[in-house]
Amino acid sequence: xxxxxxxxVLSSKIDDDARTATLDRLKxxxxxxxxxxxxxxxxxxxxxxxxxxxxxxxxxYFLHFExxxxxPSYIESHLRIYENxxxxxxxxxxx
Length: 95
Prior knowledge:
Layout: E1 2-11, H1 16-32, E2 36-52, E3 55-67, H2 71-79, E4 85-93
Antiparallel strand pairs: 1-3, 1-4, 2-3
């Protein structure tokens, strides 16, 4: 099992319920990939480095998980179609 981190930026135009629902969908996808979530770090609403889709702020999250080699591609394929996700990055953490 490898350790991974997902850096996630959600739209600032959505309400709390939609943000929670998006995170729940992501958690479900991570678990369906055969992975285990170890930590979720919510950084809150912060200013973006540059404007994206007419937004200057977004909600930042960092999700840490352990999973098989196939997990990042499976999760990425689903993150690409989530409407509320502005940007994401999945990286493997070194041991």
